[in-house]
Amino acid sequence: MAAWSAGLLLYRRHPALEVLITHMGGPFWARKDDGAWSIPKGEFIPGDEEPRDAAFREFREELGLEPPASEWAELGTFAASSSKKLVVFAADGAAFPESGFTFGEFEMEWPPRSGRTASFPEVDRAEWTGLDAARDRLVKGQRPLLDALERLLA
């Protein structure tokens, strides 16, 4: 059975189209850039929670800020990996702050097989970036979101 996630892709015209992406936190991603970014997203259980509610919750948990009150458009459902489906919404983030983030945290054993637990931020930074740079920086499974956004805004 596939796991499900939902996320929110903010965009703005500044003057060119930009999207807000987040660099994944934790030691595995620390020294990576290309393919190490994502949209704010997280898992949900279909039937227990609506995808939009999950996207709202995860955005707030990962960035520590409320998502914009602007209208959300569903971009679609994407194959994030062979076993995970990602429902994505888009919203105009022109008025969204560029700073003031409080990143959520997770715990994991670190270093591996040490028996010690360490806390790491879910994401360690968030940036507005142009679509060309975002295509390189996003994890491979999320790159089609940018095409869907362009179609929506055309």
UniProtKB/TrEMBL annotation:
Q: Pfam family of this protein, just one?
A: NUDIX
The source's domain of life comes to: Bacteria
Question: Where are its TM segments located?
Answer: none
What region holds the Nudix hydrolase domain? 12-151
InterPro entries in the cross-refs: NUDIX_hydrolase-like_dom_sf, NUDIX_hydrolase_dom, Nudix_hydrolase_domain
- Which PROSITE patterns is this protein grouped with? NUDIX (PS51462)
**Stated name of the protein:** NUDIX domain-containing protein
Species annotation: Microbacterium mcarthurae
